Prior knowledge:
Layout: H1 2-18, H2 30-57, H3 59-64, H4 70-91, H5 94-102, H6 104-128
Helix pairs in contact: 1-2, 2-4, 2-5, 2-6, 4-6, 5-6
Amino acid sequence: MKKLVAVLAPLTLVLTACAATGTTGTGTTTAATSANSLAMMAVKVGVQAKCVTELNNNTYWKTGSKLLTETQKSELQTEVCSCVGEKATTSVTATDLVVAAMDKTSQANLAAKIVTNTLNACVVETFKK
């Protein structure tokens, strides 16, 4: 019974957001937009945290950062992970957000997928600057 409540509570929240009556100028519901924004921010935070871990294991990063000082590495790491976080907003569907909101494992898997898909591009992009 507790598991059923744990599953239905987030689902109710998501469905309530979809059924909100307030609208913005674009015709979308205010609550749905807010829920989407909050979910996207949560994904971006998870992606940026995963990025730091994956970046230290990335061969492009290891090669490109050999001659950098620790301060330079830290600044570039922040820049790369910000890039990955920004690209997360374009590579996540609404369905992915709903599933991730209901399940922590799905949220971790989504963050790992986004980092895997965008990390190399962001490292190369950052080092080209």
